Amino acid sequence: MLVEREASATHKICGEFLSAETQGYLRRLGLDLGALGGHVISHLRLVRQKTIVETALPFNALGLSRYRLDEALLNHASRSGALLWRGQRASVSDIRGPVIDVDVQSAGTIRTNTLFLATGKHDLRELRRHPETPPEDLVGFKMHFDVDSAQRDALANHIELVLFAHGYAGLQRVEDGRVNLCLLAEGSWLKACGGSWEGLLEELLRTCPHLQRRLSNAVPLLSQPLTIYRVPYGFVYNPPANSADNIYRLGDQVGVIPSFSGDGMGIALHSGVVAATHYLAGSGAGNYHRQIRHDIASQIWRAGLLYRASRWAPGQRLFMGWAGLTPRSLSLAASLTRVPPSAVTRAMGLMS
């Protein structure tokens, strides 16, 4: 049984970057990615002020909106035999013992012996994450744009990571020629810009010539930007000794990688595969959580180092200088912030 809060497809705040292992998992599940129309991304541009460093990625990625991908996954789950309930809010009323009580909006209480928790960055009240350090005062925004043909061509096959004084932004094409802008900014800077998306975007375009060029004639394609606040980047779930052995945390509920790495969906799919194999083997959620922590903790730690370096001006200058001297080091950084190949190979083998 799959309980989905939204009644129909919705946009999600996400960089919408499908790495090689993400694509591999989706294809192994039986999804036809070609039919979904994702945009091939083969190169990375790192931008700070007027300095641009470009390099080939160590893999071909895809730019594909969560709107299209999530709908395809839900339909695929339904065709594969899952009972899909859409437009239903759920909460957990009792997690003690071998039976879990789940309260579903229109169906009342459902009793189950296993729960896979896949609520993304949003916690259920009864099963909150407890990060070791409090989330930073950061606000995330996402908007799709229709840009002019010259800028759309300039973005072809590239993802651009733009560093600025109070955060960073990712810019890439997705399906149908859309361009996704996803950015993370300090809450204090947002407040200084008037506390609004319009004020923040105006200031960003005024102070960042690269984004000004890309978006000067752009038309927003969403009625309003998507936002998120205080995401616990760097979080990796460490189950307490008394944790339930029948609740499996997936995706951002088990580990939150800094968004610029572009591997959040890779971690989500990897965790789902590993959780399913542990469940089918009868080894329990405790063993699963130890395994997934082993698989992703180093990856998230390395991404955190790069993330912290990108947050302050001296670090940005060093980062850009290092990248300018050895552009291929960016490709290495991209490789080091993926789910480890050995873990992917093992999980793929279990799927077979």
Assembly state: single chain
β-sheet strand percentage:
25-35%
The chain-level structural class is alpha+beta
Number of domains: 2
Shape: globular
How far the N terminus sits from the C terminus, by CA atoms, comes to 23 Å
Any idea of the CATH class of the largest domain? Alpha Beta
Low-confidence stretches: none
What is the fold named in CATH at topology level of the largest domain?
FAD/NAD(P)-binding domain
Helix segment count?
12
The largest sheet is:
9 strands, mixed
Protein name: Dehydrogenase (Flavoprotein)
Organism: Marinobacter subterrani
InterPro entries: FAD/NAD-bd_sf
Which terms summarize this structure?
alpha+beta; FAD/NAD(P)-binding domain; D-Amino Acid Oxidase, Chain A, domain 2
Can you offer a commentary on this structure?
The protein is of the alpha+beta class and 352 residues long. It folds into 2 domains: 2-134 and 232-351, 3-Layer(bba) Sandwich (FAD/NAD(P)-binding domain); 138-229, D-Amino Acid Oxidase, Chain A, domain 2. Helices cover 38% and strands 25% of the residues. The strands form 4 sheets. Strands 2, 3, 4, 10, 11, 12, 13, 14 and 15 form a 9-stranded mixed sheet that branches. The chain has a 3-stranded antiparallel sheet with strand order 6-7-8, with no helix packed on it. A two-stranded parallel sheet has the order 1-5. Strand 7 and strand 8 form a beta hairpin. The mean pLDDT is 92. This is Dehydrogenase (Flavoprotein). InterPro entries: FAD/NAD-bd_sf (IPR036188).
